[in-house]
Amino acid sequence: xxxxxxxxxxxxxxxxxxxxxxxxxxxxxxxxxxxxxxxxxxxxxxxxxxxxxxxxxxxxxxxxxxxxxxxxxxxxxxxxxxxxxxxxxxxxxxxxxxxxxxxxxxxxxxxxxxxxxxxxxxxxxxxxxxxxxxxxxxxxxxxxxxxxxxxxxxxxxxxxxxxxxxxxxxxxxxxxxxxxxxxxxxxxxxxxxxxxxxxxxxxxxxxxxxxxxxxxxxxxxxxxxxxxxxxxxxxxxxxxxxxxxxxxxxxxxxxxxxxxxxxxxxxxxxxxxxxxxxxxxxxxxxxxxxxxxxxxxxxxxxxxxxxxxxxxxxxxxxxxxxxxxxxxxxxxxxxxxxxxxxxxxxxxxxxxxxxxxxxxxxxxxxxxxxxxxxxxxxxxxxxxxxxxxxxxxxxxxxxxxxxxxxxxxxxxxxxxxxxxxxxxxxxxxxxxxxx
Length: 435
Prior knowledge:
435 residues; globular; 11 strands; three-stranded antiparallel β-sheet; two-stranded antiparallel ribbon; mainly alpha
């Protein structure tokens, strides 16, 4: 990677200043031991009451999130590769078992129904059925299956998984891309995985007081408006109540398609998903890339209005392996490595510090407004390595280790101080093991 001399000097100086994080106080075995304790402590096994269907999964948090969440489960499986590959496989087998005949795989599955009522007293979930949610999350599952297959070489596991994955990625294309431009759409902010992000404020009618109570109130209004349309995915999108072509979601969609292509090998289905991956990548560049601001923006509504708020979503196309080199360089140099945007003491904040709505602390559950999340650090550090930025990826990994050492496996962290916030013993922060 060729960088300008000034930028190269700044990077080198910053890495020298902080490289003690790579050598001081880091004990991989200790972190593995703590991760094992947490993941086993969050493990849920048994049979569902209504149908005696067996389950085996790690919940995000015993206290706050006692069920199976889609992309959390994918991240748990990847972390479990470093603990117990059989557990990693069982985690994904349970997640794959939640697929519907249509191909849809839900955001949340309520395996232990006796816990559902208490959870729903303080949480708002879109549901058509008491057993699962009616929404999706970023489609990480094919990448997770690929990683577990690489670790186990279990061909039966792969053979069982592939038809489900083919059905799911077809469902996304057929039901979530109404204009057939290659970009899939989300119908409410929780589907993005970063639900309270300020990029959704205008569409959600968030004005005046910005807090979690206001967000929940506005989300309920959206759910109520959707009620007559439930069960008809096309009508939900056509209503234009909340229709986002989200850069983060589509970047992970491309990543998943690439994994599916590799796992399919010489199957005649490969060409279908090669076209989907290429079409989505081209649309991200052709529609979401802002040449003047040199970054990617989500598109809101059927009108596809760019949402020009700089959040971590703007960086997420870095996980696409064949992203053009000039776009990679501009994204890294202008945004990621800029202290005016994302390069803080404990990167990577979920919102650029340049944004008026950036908030580094913990405003009582009003999340994704600025704190650092280890799953995002994992995504982007791997993406950076794929483009040759190994030193920067090392820096992100080292500060991520430091966060876990200082505050434990927390839900998210202050990018200035490293303080841990949100749920304790939060499952996906064990993804540090893969960094």
